[in-house]
Design brief:
single chain, about 625 residues, alpha/beta, Rossmann fold, six-stranded mixed β-sheet, two-stranded antiparallel ribbon, 12 strands
Protein backbone atom coordinates (compact mmCIF):
# COMPACT_ATOMS: atom_id res chain seq x y z
CA UNK A 1 0.00 0.00 0.00
CA UNK A 2 1.55 3.29 -1.09
CA UNK A 3 1.04 6.68 0.50
CA UNK A 4 0.80 8.24 -2.97
CA UNK A 5 -2.69 7.64 -4.35
CA UNK A 6 -4.14 8.70 -7.69
CA UNK A 7 -6.29 11.82 -7.49
CA UNK A 8 -9.62 12.16 -9.23
CA UNK A 9 -10.59 15.26 -11.16
CA UNK A 10 -11.91 17.81 -8.70
CA UNK A 11 -14.44 20.56 -9.23
CA UNK A 12 -11.77 22.91 -7.86
CA UNK A 13 -8.01 23.12 -8.07
CA UNK A 14 -6.72 20.37 -5.78
CA UNK A 15 -5.25 21.40 -2.45
CA UNK A 16 -3.49 18.49 -0.66
CA UNK A 17 -3.49 20.41 2.64
CA UNK A 18 -7.28 20.08 2.83
CA UNK A 19 -6.89 16.32 2.60
CA UNK A 20 -4.25 16.57 5.31
CA UNK A 21 -6.85 18.23 7.55
CA UNK A 22 -9.27 15.43 6.68
CA UNK A 23 -6.56 12.98 7.69
CA UNK A 24 -6.27 14.58 11.11
CA UNK A 25 -10.06 14.48 11.51
CA UNK A 26 -10.48 10.82 10.57
CA UNK A 27 -7.56 9.64 12.70
CA UNK A 28 -9.02 11.53 15.66
CA UNK A 29 -12.37 9.80 15.21
CA UNK A 30 -10.77 6.38 14.65
CA UNK A 31 -8.61 6.58 17.78
CA UNK A 32 -11.51 7.94 19.83
CA UNK A 33 -13.72 4.98 18.96
CA UNK A 34 -10.97 2.50 19.84
CA UNK A 35 -9.40 4.25 22.86
CA UNK A 36 -12.03 6.71 24.19
CA UNK A 37 -10.27 6.98 27.55
CA UNK A 38 -7.09 8.29 25.89
CA UNK A 39 -8.55 10.22 22.94
CA UNK A 40 -11.59 11.62 24.70
CA UNK A 41 -11.86 14.69 22.45
CA UNK A 42 -11.36 12.73 19.25
CA UNK A 43 -15.08 12.99 18.52
CA UNK A 44 -14.39 16.62 17.57
CA UNK A 45 -13.03 15.18 14.33
CA UNK A 46 -16.66 14.91 13.19
CA UNK A 47 -17.17 18.62 13.90
CA UNK A 48 -14.07 19.33 11.85
CA UNK A 49 -15.55 17.29 8.98
CA UNK A 50 -18.72 19.39 9.17
CA UNK A 51 -16.80 22.66 8.98
CA UNK A 52 -14.60 21.40 6.15
CA UNK A 53 -17.63 20.14 4.20
CA UNK A 54 -19.37 23.48 4.52
CA UNK A 55 -16.19 25.21 3.34
CA UNK A 56 -15.68 23.00 0.29
CA UNK A 57 -19.28 22.72 -0.86
CA UNK A 58 -19.75 26.48 -0.70
CA UNK A 59 -16.46 26.97 -2.53
CA UNK A 60 -17.64 24.65 -5.32
CA UNK A 61 -21.05 26.29 -5.68
CA UNK A 62 -19.90 29.91 -5.48
CA UNK A 63 -16.88 29.45 -7.75
CA UNK A 64 -19.05 27.87 -10.45
CA UNK A 65 -21.67 30.58 -10.09
CA UNK A 66 -18.95 33.16 -10.67
CA UNK A 67 -17.85 31.30 -13.80
CA UNK A 68 -21.42 30.91 -15.01
CA UNK A 69 -21.10 27.11 -15.04
CA UNK A 70 -23.16 26.08 -12.03
CA UNK A 71 -25.91 23.50 -12.62
CA UNK A 72 -28.21 22.09 -9.95
CA UNK A 73 -28.56 18.91 -11.95
CA UNK A 74 -24.80 18.50 -12.19
CA UNK A 75 -24.35 19.34 -8.50
CA UNK A 76 -26.66 16.58 -7.31
CA UNK A 77 -25.22 14.10 -9.81
CA UNK A 78 -21.75 14.79 -8.42
CA UNK A 79 -22.96 14.30 -4.86
CA UNK A 80 -24.49 10.95 -5.81
CA UNK A 81 -21.31 9.61 -7.43
CA UNK A 82 -19.20 11.02 -4.59
CA UNK A 83 -21.27 9.62 -1.70
CA UNK A 84 -23.35 6.67 -2.86
CA UNK A 85 -20.74 4.11 -4.05
CA UNK A 86 -18.94 3.74 -0.71
CA UNK A 87 -22.24 3.87 1.18
CA UNK A 88 -23.67 1.08 -0.97
CA UNK A 89 -20.65 -1.17 -0.44
CA UNK A 90 -20.54 -0.62 3.35
CA UNK A 91 -24.29 -1.11 3.80
CA UNK A 92 -24.22 -4.33 1.78
CA UNK A 93 -21.32 -5.64 3.86
CA UNK A 94 -23.04 -4.64 7.12
CA UNK A 95 -26.25 -6.33 6.03
CA UNK A 96 -24.48 -9.49 4.89
CA UNK A 97 -22.60 -9.91 8.20
CA UNK A 98 -25.84 -9.23 10.04
CA UNK A 99 -27.70 -11.83 7.99
CA UNK A 100 -25.00 -14.37 8.75
CA UNK A 101 -24.49 -13.86 12.46
CA UNK A 102 -27.12 -11.68 14.13
CA UNK A 103 -30.03 -13.01 16.11
CA UNK A 104 -33.48 -12.07 14.74
CA UNK A 105 -34.01 -9.23 17.24
CA UNK A 106 -30.60 -7.80 16.38
CA UNK A 107 -31.14 -8.14 12.62
CA UNK A 108 -34.56 -6.53 12.96
CA UNK A 109 -32.97 -3.47 14.55
CA UNK A 110 -30.25 -3.45 11.92
CA UNK A 111 -32.89 -3.54 9.18
CA UNK A 112 -34.43 -0.40 10.65
CA UNK A 113 -31.01 1.27 10.58
CA UNK A 114 -30.22 0.08 7.06
CA UNK A 115 -33.32 1.91 5.86
CA UNK A 116 -32.67 5.14 7.75
CA UNK A 117 -28.99 5.13 6.74
CA UNK A 118 -29.75 4.49 3.06
CA UNK A 119 -32.35 7.26 3.07
CA UNK A 120 -30.12 9.59 5.12
CA UNK A 121 -32.29 10.20 8.17
CA UNK A 122 -30.33 8.04 10.60
CA UNK A 123 -29.75 11.02 12.90
CA UNK A 124 -33.49 11.43 13.49
CA UNK A 125 -33.91 7.70 14.01
CA UNK A 126 -31.30 7.75 16.77
CA UNK A 127 -32.92 10.64 18.64
CA UNK A 128 -35.63 8.26 19.80
CA UNK A 129 -33.33 5.28 20.37
CA UNK A 130 -30.02 5.91 22.03
CA UNK A 131 -27.63 8.63 23.14
CA UNK A 132 -24.27 8.72 21.39
CA UNK A 133 -22.49 8.17 24.72
CA UNK A 134 -24.72 5.31 25.87
CA UNK A 135 -23.28 1.80 26.03
CA UNK A 136 -26.04 0.55 23.73
CA UNK A 137 -24.69 2.83 21.01
CA UNK A 138 -21.71 0.53 20.61
CA UNK A 139 -24.06 -2.25 19.52
CA UNK A 140 -25.39 -0.29 16.53
CA UNK A 141 -23.08 -0.84 13.53
CA UNK A 142 -24.57 2.10 11.63
CA UNK A 143 -24.61 4.61 14.48
CA UNK A 144 -22.01 6.78 12.74
CA UNK A 145 -24.28 7.33 9.74
CA UNK A 146 -25.95 10.07 11.79
CA UNK A 147 -23.29 12.58 10.71
CA UNK A 148 -23.51 11.57 7.04
CA UNK A 149 -27.28 12.09 7.26
CA UNK A 150 -26.77 15.61 8.60
CA UNK A 151 -24.43 16.45 5.72
CA UNK A 152 -26.70 15.03 3.04
CA UNK A 153 -29.69 16.93 4.42
CA UNK A 154 -27.58 20.10 4.31
CA UNK A 155 -26.59 19.45 0.70
CA UNK A 156 -30.24 19.26 -0.37
CA UNK A 157 -31.06 22.90 0.34
CA UNK A 158 -27.68 24.67 0.56
CA UNK A 159 -27.17 25.17 -3.22
CA UNK A 160 -30.45 27.09 -3.32
CA UNK A 161 -29.32 29.31 -0.43
CA UNK A 162 -26.04 30.20 -2.14
CA UNK A 163 -27.82 30.61 -5.48
CA UNK A 164 -30.24 33.16 -4.01
CA UNK A 165 -27.44 35.07 -2.27
CA UNK A 166 -25.50 35.23 -5.52
CA UNK A 167 -28.41 36.14 -7.81
CA UNK A 168 -29.78 38.79 -5.44
CA UNK A 169 -26.26 40.21 -5.12
CA UNK A 170 -26.36 40.01 -1.33
CA UNK A 171 -23.03 40.46 0.41
CA UNK A 172 -21.72 36.91 0.86
CA UNK A 173 -19.90 37.52 4.15
CA UNK A 174 -22.80 39.41 5.72
CA UNK A 175 -25.38 36.90 4.52
CA UNK A 176 -23.46 33.90 5.79
CA UNK A 177 -22.72 35.61 9.10
CA UNK A 178 -26.45 36.21 9.63
CA UNK A 179 -27.19 32.59 8.73
CA UNK A 180 -24.43 31.42 11.06
CA UNK A 181 -25.85 33.35 14.02
CA UNK A 182 -29.37 32.21 13.17
CA UNK A 183 -28.47 28.52 12.82
CA UNK A 184 -26.30 28.58 15.96
CA UNK A 185 -29.11 30.17 18.00
CA UNK A 186 -31.87 27.76 16.97
CA UNK A 187 -31.11 25.23 19.70
CA UNK A 188 -31.67 27.91 22.34
CA UNK A 189 -35.16 28.76 21.07
CA UNK A 190 -36.42 25.38 19.92
CA UNK A 191 -36.64 22.34 22.15
CA UNK A 192 -34.56 19.76 20.29
CA UNK A 193 -31.94 17.08 20.67
CA UNK A 194 -28.69 19.04 20.49
CA UNK A 195 -26.53 16.14 19.36
CA UNK A 196 -28.38 14.38 16.54
CA UNK A 197 -30.85 16.99 15.30
CA UNK A 198 -29.77 18.56 12.02
CA UNK A 199 -31.00 21.99 13.09
CA UNK A 200 -28.57 21.86 16.01
CA UNK A 201 -25.68 20.91 13.70
CA UNK A 202 -26.14 22.97 10.53
CA UNK A 203 -24.31 25.92 12.07
CA UNK A 204 -21.05 23.98 11.84
CA UNK A 205 -21.42 23.59 8.08
CA UNK A 206 -22.47 27.24 7.79
CA UNK A 207 -19.34 28.15 9.75
CA UNK A 208 -17.29 26.41 7.09
CA UNK A 209 -19.14 28.39 4.42
CA UNK A 210 -18.49 31.62 6.32
CA UNK A 211 -14.77 30.80 6.55
CA UNK A 212 -14.72 30.33 2.78
CA UNK A 213 -16.36 33.73 2.30
CA UNK A 214 -13.74 35.40 4.53
CA UNK A 215 -10.89 33.64 2.75
CA UNK A 216 -12.31 34.48 -0.67
CA UNK A 217 -12.77 38.14 0.21
CA UNK A 218 -9.27 38.59 1.53
CA UNK A 219 -7.56 36.14 -0.85
CA UNK A 220 -6.50 33.78 1.88
CA UNK A 221 -6.47 30.01 1.75
CA UNK A 222 -4.59 27.22 3.43
CA UNK A 223 -1.21 26.77 1.77
CA UNK A 224 -0.94 23.80 -0.56
CA UNK A 225 2.57 23.18 0.74
CA UNK A 226 1.87 23.51 4.47
CA UNK A 227 4.51 21.32 6.14
CA UNK A 228 2.00 19.71 8.48
CA UNK A 229 -1.18 19.44 6.45
CA UNK A 230 0.50 18.44 3.17
CA UNK A 231 2.36 15.59 4.85
CA UNK A 232 2.03 12.49 2.66
CA UNK A 233 0.75 10.26 5.47
CA UNK A 234 -1.97 12.72 6.47
CA UNK A 235 -2.92 13.32 2.83
CA UNK A 236 -3.21 9.55 2.32
CA UNK A 237 -5.61 9.24 5.25
CA UNK A 238 -7.45 12.30 4.02
CA UNK A 239 -7.99 10.76 0.60
CA UNK A 240 -9.45 7.59 2.10
CA UNK A 241 -11.16 9.44 4.97
CA UNK A 242 -14.73 8.98 3.74
CA UNK A 243 -14.64 5.18 3.27
CA UNK A 244 -12.46 4.88 6.39
CA UNK A 245 -15.13 6.72 8.38
CA UNK A 246 -17.80 4.36 7.03
CA UNK A 247 -15.84 1.14 7.55
CA UNK A 248 -14.18 1.58 10.92
CA UNK A 249 -17.26 1.87 13.13
CA UNK A 250 -19.02 -1.05 11.45
CA UNK A 251 -16.03 -3.22 12.33
CA UNK A 252 -15.77 -1.86 15.90
CA UNK A 253 -19.48 -2.30 16.57
CA UNK A 254 -19.50 -5.89 15.34
CA UNK A 255 -16.52 -6.55 17.62
CA UNK A 256 -18.63 -5.37 20.57
CA UNK A 257 -21.64 -7.38 19.41
CA UNK A 258 -19.54 -10.54 19.13
CA UNK A 259 -18.00 -9.93 22.57
CA UNK A 260 -14.48 -9.31 21.27
CA UNK A 261 -12.18 -6.92 23.11
CA UNK A 262 -11.79 -3.81 20.96
CA UNK A 263 -8.60 -2.62 22.63
CA UNK A 264 -7.02 -6.05 22.39
CA UNK A 265 -7.71 -6.18 18.66
CA UNK A 266 -7.02 -2.48 18.05
CA UNK A 267 -4.27 -3.06 15.48
CA UNK A 268 -6.43 -5.58 13.62
CA UNK A 269 -9.27 -3.06 13.53
CA UNK A 270 -7.01 -0.29 12.26
CA UNK A 271 -5.36 -2.45 9.60
CA UNK A 272 -8.62 -3.94 8.30
CA UNK A 273 -10.38 -0.57 8.31
CA UNK A 274 -7.56 1.13 6.43
CA UNK A 275 -7.26 -1.74 3.96
CA UNK A 276 -10.98 -1.78 3.19
CA UNK A 277 -11.01 2.01 2.92
CA UNK A 278 -8.04 1.95 0.54
CA UNK A 279 -9.66 -0.71 -1.65
CA UNK A 280 -12.96 1.17 -1.65
CA UNK A 281 -11.28 4.42 -2.66
CA UNK A 282 -8.90 2.89 -5.20
CA UNK A 283 -11.29 0.55 -7.02
CA UNK A 284 -14.79 1.91 -6.37
CA UNK A 285 -14.68 5.62 -5.59
CA UNK A 286 -12.17 6.51 -8.30
CA UNK A 287 -14.15 4.61 -10.89
CA UNK A 288 -17.47 6.12 -9.84
CA UNK A 289 -16.19 9.69 -9.80
CA UNK A 290 -14.90 9.32 -13.35
CA UNK A 291 -18.37 8.46 -14.64
CA UNK A 292 -20.05 11.54 -16.07
CA UNK A 293 -23.37 10.09 -17.19
CA UNK A 294 -26.59 10.80 -15.36
CA UNK A 295 -27.63 7.24 -16.09
CA UNK A 296 -24.81 5.99 -13.87
CA UNK A 297 -25.95 8.29 -11.06
CA UNK A 298 -29.50 7.02 -11.52
CA UNK A 299 -28.32 3.41 -11.18
CA UNK A 300 -26.53 4.28 -7.93
CA UNK A 301 -29.68 5.97 -6.67
CA UNK A 302 -31.80 2.90 -7.47
CA UNK A 303 -29.26 0.57 -5.83
CA UNK A 304 -29.22 2.56 -2.60
CA UNK A 305 -33.00 2.85 -2.60
CA UNK A 306 -33.25 -0.93 -2.99
CA UNK A 307 -30.91 -1.48 -0.05
CA UNK A 308 -33.05 0.82 2.06
CA UNK A 309 -36.19 -1.10 1.13
CA UNK A 310 -34.51 -4.41 1.92
CA UNK A 311 -33.82 -3.05 5.40
CA UNK A 312 -37.49 -2.16 5.72
CA UNK A 313 -38.45 -5.71 4.63
CA UNK A 314 -36.14 -7.24 7.24
CA UNK A 315 -37.61 -5.03 9.97
CA UNK A 316 -41.21 -5.83 9.03
CA UNK A 317 -40.40 -9.55 8.96
CA UNK A 318 -38.90 -9.55 12.48
CA UNK A 319 -35.28 -10.04 11.54
CA UNK A 320 -35.84 -13.10 9.34
CA UNK A 321 -36.12 -15.67 12.17
CA UNK A 322 -36.42 -18.57 9.70
CA UNK A 323 -32.89 -18.32 8.34
CA UNK A 324 -31.84 -21.98 8.07
CA UNK A 325 -28.34 -21.49 9.45
CA UNK A 326 -29.56 -20.02 12.78
CA UNK A 327 -29.16 -22.23 15.82
CA UNK A 328 -32.00 -23.02 18.20
CA UNK A 329 -31.45 -21.19 21.46
CA UNK A 330 -34.69 -22.27 23.06
CA UNK A 331 -36.24 -19.79 25.43
CA UNK A 332 -33.10 -17.66 25.76
CA UNK A 333 -34.13 -15.02 23.24
CA UNK A 334 -37.27 -14.24 25.22
CA UNK A 335 -35.13 -13.16 28.17
CA UNK A 336 -33.83 -10.11 26.32
CA UNK A 337 -37.26 -8.57 25.92
CA UNK A 338 -37.82 -6.05 28.72
CA UNK A 339 -41.18 -6.07 30.48
CA UNK A 340 -43.51 -3.09 29.99
CA UNK A 341 -42.84 -0.27 32.43
CA UNK A 342 -46.38 0.24 33.71
CA UNK A 343 -49.71 -1.56 33.98
CA UNK A 344 -53.29 -0.37 34.36
CA UNK A 345 -53.66 -1.63 37.93
CA UNK A 346 -50.58 0.26 39.08
CA UNK A 347 -51.53 3.53 37.40
CA UNK A 348 -55.11 3.37 38.72
CA UNK A 349 -54.04 2.52 42.27
CA UNK A 350 -51.33 5.18 42.50
CA UNK A 351 -53.42 7.86 40.76
CA UNK A 352 -56.21 7.31 43.31
CA UNK A 353 -53.82 8.08 46.17
CA UNK A 354 -51.86 10.92 44.57
CA UNK A 355 -54.96 12.40 42.89
CA UNK A 356 -52.91 12.69 39.71
CA UNK A 357 -51.20 10.41 37.24
CA UNK A 358 -47.71 9.53 38.55
CA UNK A 359 -44.66 10.67 36.62
CA UNK A 360 -42.60 7.73 37.88
CA UNK A 361 -41.14 5.59 35.12
CA UNK A 362 -42.13 2.20 36.53
CA UNK A 363 -45.53 1.74 38.18
CA UNK A 364 -47.17 -1.68 38.45
CA UNK A 365 -49.52 -3.46 40.83
CA UNK A 366 -51.25 -6.80 41.08
CA UNK A 367 -54.51 -5.24 42.32
CA UNK A 368 -56.40 -1.96 42.46
CA UNK A 369 -57.78 -2.75 45.94
CA UNK A 370 -56.47 0.08 48.10
CA UNK A 371 -57.16 -1.93 51.28
CA UNK A 372 -55.10 -4.98 50.33
CA UNK A 373 -51.85 -5.74 52.13
CA UNK A 374 -48.88 -4.93 49.94
CA UNK A 375 -45.25 -5.71 49.36
CA UNK A 376 -43.73 -2.58 47.81
CA UNK A 377 -40.81 -3.07 45.41
CA UNK A 378 -38.94 0.22 45.31
CA UNK A 379 -35.87 1.46 43.50
CA UNK A 380 -34.67 2.13 39.98
CA UNK A 381 -34.68 0.06 36.78
CA UNK A 382 -33.16 -2.84 38.74
CA UNK A 383 -36.31 -2.94 40.88
CA UNK A 384 -38.37 -3.06 37.70
CA UNK A 385 -36.26 -5.97 36.42
CA UNK A 386 -36.73 -7.85 39.73
CA UNK A 387 -40.49 -7.26 39.89
CA UNK A 388 -41.73 -10.32 37.91
CA UNK A 389 -40.25 -12.85 40.34
CA UNK A 390 -41.01 -10.89 43.51
CA UNK A 391 -44.67 -10.32 42.63
CA UNK A 392 -45.14 -14.06 42.10
CA UNK A 393 -43.80 -15.08 45.51
CA UNK A 394 -45.65 -12.17 47.16
CA UNK A 395 -48.93 -13.47 45.74
CA UNK A 396 -48.04 -16.97 46.84
CA UNK A 397 -47.75 -15.73 50.44
CA UNK A 398 -50.98 -13.74 50.42
CA UNK A 399 -49.63 -10.30 49.52
CA UNK A 400 -50.28 -7.99 46.61
CA UNK A 401 -47.28 -6.36 44.91
CA UNK A 402 -46.70 -2.71 44.06
CA UNK A 403 -43.77 -1.51 41.95
CA UNK A 404 -42.61 2.10 42.43
CA UNK A 405 -39.33 2.88 40.72
CA UNK A 406 -37.54 5.37 38.53
CA UNK A 407 -35.08 5.17 35.67
CA UNK A 408 -31.63 6.46 36.72
CA UNK A 409 -33.20 8.11 39.78
CA UNK A 410 -32.74 5.79 42.78
CA UNK A 411 -35.18 6.93 45.50
CA UNK A 412 -32.81 7.51 48.40
CA UNK A 413 -33.94 10.23 50.83
CA UNK A 414 -32.60 13.61 49.67
CA UNK A 415 -30.98 11.71 46.81
CA UNK A 416 -32.31 13.45 43.70
CA UNK A 417 -29.92 13.05 40.78
CA UNK A 418 -29.73 14.14 37.16
CA UNK A 419 -27.54 15.35 34.34
CA UNK A 420 -28.80 18.88 34.85
CA UNK A 421 -30.93 20.80 37.33
CA UNK A 422 -34.10 20.15 35.34
CA UNK A 423 -33.55 16.39 35.65
CA UNK A 424 -32.71 16.77 39.35
CA UNK A 425 -36.03 18.55 39.89
CA UNK A 426 -37.93 15.83 38.02
CA UNK A 427 -36.12 13.12 40.01
CA UNK A 428 -37.00 14.84 43.28
CA UNK A 429 -40.67 14.88 42.34
CA UNK A 430 -40.53 11.18 41.47
CA UNK A 431 -38.91 10.39 44.82
CA UNK A 432 -41.50 12.49 46.68
CA UNK A 433 -44.26 10.54 44.93
CA UNK A 434 -42.80 7.27 46.17
CA UNK A 435 -42.52 8.35 49.79
CA UNK A 436 -46.01 9.87 49.72
CA UNK A 437 -47.30 6.45 48.73
CA UNK A 438 -45.17 4.61 51.28
CA UNK A 439 -46.07 6.83 54.23
CA UNK A 440 -49.26 5.29 55.64
CA UNK A 441 -51.38 5.76 52.51
CA UNK A 442 -51.43 2.07 51.75
CA UNK A 443 -51.37 -1.06 53.86
CA UNK A 444 -47.71 -1.77 53.09
CA UNK A 445 -46.24 -4.58 55.16
CA UNK A 446 -42.88 -5.00 53.48
CA UNK A 447 -40.60 -2.82 51.37
CA UNK A 448 -37.98 -4.38 49.12
CA UNK A 449 -35.45 -1.80 47.96
CA UNK A 450 -33.32 -2.54 44.86
CA UNK A 451 -31.04 -0.20 42.91
CA UNK A 452 -27.87 -0.18 40.90
CA UNK A 453 -25.18 1.13 43.21
CA UNK A 454 -21.57 1.14 42.03
CA UNK A 455 -22.15 3.08 38.82
CA UNK A 456 -24.04 5.78 40.72
CA UNK A 457 -21.32 5.81 43.36
CA UNK A 458 -18.17 5.54 41.23
CA UNK A 459 -19.52 7.15 38.09
CA UNK A 460 -18.32 4.60 35.55
CA UNK A 461 -19.53 1.39 34.02
CA UNK A 462 -17.99 -2.05 33.98
CA UNK A 463 -16.65 -4.17 31.16
CA UNK A 464 -16.13 -3.80 27.46
CA UNK A 465 -19.66 -2.77 26.46
CA UNK A 466 -20.51 -0.62 29.45
CA UNK A 467 -19.88 3.11 29.29
CA UNK A 468 -16.60 3.97 30.98
CA UNK A 469 -16.85 7.74 31.32
CA UNK A 470 -16.85 9.13 34.86
CA UNK A 471 -20.03 10.57 36.28
CA UNK A 472 -18.44 14.03 36.28
CA UNK A 473 -18.81 14.12 32.50
CA UNK A 474 -22.04 12.52 31.38
CA UNK A 475 -23.78 10.65 34.18
CA UNK A 476 -26.37 11.65 36.74
CA UNK A 477 -25.07 13.71 39.65
CA UNK A 478 -26.45 14.86 42.96
CA UNK A 479 -27.81 18.38 43.15
CA UNK A 480 -24.87 20.03 44.86
CA UNK A 481 -22.75 19.33 41.78
CA UNK A 482 -24.74 22.08 40.07
CA UNK A 483 -24.87 24.42 43.07
CA UNK A 484 -21.53 23.86 44.82
CA UNK A 485 -19.06 21.96 42.63
CA UNK A 486 -16.22 22.79 44.98
CA UNK A 487 -17.65 20.56 47.70
CA UNK A 488 -19.32 17.99 45.46
CA UNK A 489 -18.43 14.40 46.29
CA UNK A 490 -20.62 11.87 44.48
CA UNK A 491 -19.32 8.85 46.34
CA UNK A 492 -19.68 10.37 49.78
CA UNK A 493 -23.21 11.62 49.10
CA UNK A 494 -24.31 8.29 47.67
CA UNK A 495 -23.10 6.34 50.71
CA UNK A 496 -24.63 8.91 53.07
CA UNK A 497 -27.96 8.46 51.33
CA UNK A 498 -27.86 4.72 51.90
CA UNK A 499 -27.41 5.39 55.61
CA UNK A 500 -30.27 7.92 55.59
CA UNK A 501 -32.46 5.23 54.05
CA UNK A 502 -31.52 2.68 56.70
CA UNK A 503 -32.07 5.21 59.47
CA UNK A 504 -35.50 6.12 58.09
CA UNK A 505 -36.76 2.54 58.15
CA UNK A 506 -34.85 1.01 61.07
CA UNK A 507 -37.64 1.79 63.54
CA UNK A 508 -40.50 1.56 61.08
CA UNK A 509 -43.40 -0.83 61.49
CA UNK A 510 -42.81 -1.83 57.89
CA UNK A 511 -40.32 -4.65 57.41
CA UNK A 512 -37.51 -3.31 55.22
CA UNK A 513 -35.29 -5.42 52.93
CA UNK A 514 -32.29 -4.04 51.08
CA UNK A 515 -31.09 -6.20 48.17
CA UNK A 516 -27.42 -5.69 47.37
CA UNK A 517 -26.45 -5.00 43.79
CA UNK A 518 -26.07 -8.03 41.55
CA UNK A 519 -22.79 -8.60 39.66
CA UNK A 520 -22.41 -6.48 36.54
CA UNK A 521 -21.40 -8.64 33.61
CA UNK A 522 -19.70 -6.02 31.49
CA UNK A 523 -20.63 -7.98 28.35
CA UNK A 524 -23.81 -8.58 26.40
CA UNK A 525 -25.40 -11.81 27.65
CA UNK A 526 -26.71 -12.45 24.15
CA UNK A 527 -23.23 -13.74 23.52
CA UNK A 528 -24.04 -16.66 25.80
CA UNK A 529 -26.32 -17.86 23.05
CA UNK A 530 -24.96 -19.89 20.18
CA UNK A 531 -24.31 -17.78 17.10
CA UNK A 532 -24.12 -19.49 13.71
CA UNK A 533 -20.93 -21.34 12.80
CA UNK A 534 -19.53 -21.23 16.39
CA UNK A 535 -16.67 -18.91 15.48
CA UNK A 536 -17.21 -16.29 18.21
CA UNK A 537 -16.24 -16.89 21.84
CA UNK A 538 -18.93 -17.57 24.41
CA UNK A 539 -17.75 -16.78 27.93
CA UNK A 540 -20.79 -16.41 30.15
CA UNK A 541 -19.05 -15.59 33.37
CA UNK A 542 -16.82 -13.05 35.08
CA UNK A 543 -14.25 -13.59 37.77
CA UNK A 544 -15.59 -13.36 41.31
CA UNK A 545 -12.54 -11.25 42.12
CA UNK A 546 -13.52 -8.66 39.49
CA UNK A 547 -17.04 -8.39 40.93
CA UNK A 548 -15.84 -8.07 44.53
CA UNK A 549 -13.11 -5.56 43.68
CA UNK A 550 -15.56 -3.30 41.87
CA UNK A 551 -18.11 -3.41 44.69
CA UNK A 552 -15.63 -3.58 47.58
CA UNK A 553 -16.19 -0.09 48.98
CA UNK A 554 -19.96 -0.28 48.51
CA UNK A 555 -20.31 -3.71 50.09
CA UNK A 556 -17.99 -2.88 52.98
CA UNK A 557 -19.96 0.26 53.75
CA UNK A 558 -23.38 -1.44 53.64
CA UNK A 559 -22.33 -4.28 55.94
CA UNK A 560 -20.65 -1.86 58.30
CA UNK A 561 -23.67 0.41 58.79
CA UNK A 562 -26.08 -2.53 58.88
CA UNK A 563 -24.72 -3.23 62.36
CA UNK A 564 -26.07 0.17 63.46
CA UNK A 565 -29.50 -0.58 62.00
CA UNK A 566 -30.34 -4.18 63.01
CA UNK A 567 -33.94 -3.98 61.78
CA UNK A 568 -32.80 -3.57 58.18
CA UNK A 569 -32.52 -6.95 56.46
CA UNK A 570 -29.65 -7.17 54.00
CA UNK A 571 -30.22 -9.64 51.15
CA UNK A 572 -27.02 -10.47 49.30
CA UNK A 573 -27.32 -12.19 45.89
CA UNK A 574 -23.59 -12.98 45.69
CA UNK A 575 -23.95 -16.67 46.39
CA UNK A 576 -26.90 -16.93 44.01
CA UNK A 577 -24.81 -15.69 41.07
CA UNK A 578 -21.32 -16.77 42.10
CA UNK A 579 -19.31 -19.70 43.33
CA UNK A 580 -15.79 -19.58 44.71
CA UNK A 581 -14.23 -18.43 41.41
CA UNK A 582 -16.81 -17.01 39.01
CA UNK A 583 -20.13 -15.18 38.71
CA UNK A 584 -22.39 -16.53 35.98
CA UNK A 585 -24.82 -15.14 33.43
CA UNK A 586 -26.56 -18.51 33.18
CA UNK A 587 -27.71 -20.97 35.81
CA UNK A 588 -29.37 -24.37 35.46
CA UNK A 589 -29.72 -23.77 31.73
CA UNK A 590 -31.55 -20.46 32.22
CA UNK A 591 -30.42 -16.95 31.29
CA UNK A 592 -30.19 -14.73 34.38
CA UNK A 593 -29.66 -11.39 32.63
CA UNK A 594 -31.52 -9.26 30.06
CA UNK A 595 -28.47 -7.10 29.49
CA UNK A 596 -25.13 -6.58 31.18
CA UNK A 597 -26.59 -5.52 34.55
CA UNK A 598 -30.40 -6.06 34.58
CA UNK A 599 -32.04 -9.36 35.43
CA UNK A 600 -34.04 -11.31 32.88
CA UNK A 601 -37.51 -12.55 33.78
CA UNK A 602 -36.09 -16.01 34.47
CA UNK A 603 -33.34 -14.41 36.56
CA UNK A 604 -35.86 -12.44 38.62
CA UNK A 605 -37.93 -15.56 39.27
CA UNK A 606 -34.90 -17.60 40.33
CA UNK A 607 -33.50 -14.85 42.59
CA UNK A 608 -36.92 -14.29 44.20
CA UNK A 609 -37.09 -18.00 45.07
CA UNK A 610 -33.56 -17.74 46.48
CA UNK A 611 -34.69 -14.99 48.88
CA UNK A 612 -38.22 -16.32 49.48
CA UNK A 613 -37.66 -17.74 52.96
CA UNK A 614 -35.83 -14.67 54.19
CA UNK A 615 -38.52 -12.28 52.96
CA UNK A 616 -41.64 -14.25 53.81
CA UNK A 617 -40.66 -16.21 56.90
CA UNK A 618 -42.91 -14.02 59.03
CA UNK A 619 -42.25 -16.06 62.15
Amino acid sequence: MKFNLPIVNHSLQYNPSLDGIRGIAILSVLFFHIWPQYFYYGFLGVDLFFVLSGYLITNIIYTKLNKGSFSFKEFYRNRVRRIFPAVIVVLLFTLFIGWLFLFPSELKDLGHHIKSSAFFYQNFRLINEVGYWDKAAQLKPLLHFWSLSVEEQFYIFWPFVIFVIYKKRFNLITSLFVLLIFSFSLKYFIDMDTFYNSLARFWELVLGAFLFAIGSKYSYEISKTNLIFSNKVLVFFGLISFPLYLWHYVIISYMYIFNLNVEKYALVIIFSSVLLAYLTYRYIELYARQQKSYRFAAILFILLFSIGMSGSYIYKHNGLPNRKHLKDNGNFKQQFIREVAQNKQGIKLVSEILHKKPINDYVKATTTNINAKFVAIVGDSHAHASYPGLKDIAKRHGYEALLLSNSSCPPYPDGAMGRNLKEVKECREKIDNIYTLLNDNLNIKKIIFITRATKNMLGNGFGIIDDQKPVAYTGAKFENYFTDKKHWNQKKEFLNNIEKLFKKYNNSKVKFYYIMEDPELGFDPKNCMMRPFDIFPSNCKIKLEAFLNRQKEYRTFVYKISKKYPNITILDPKNFYCDGKYCYAMKNGKMLYADDDHQSVDGSIMQAKYFENEIFNDK
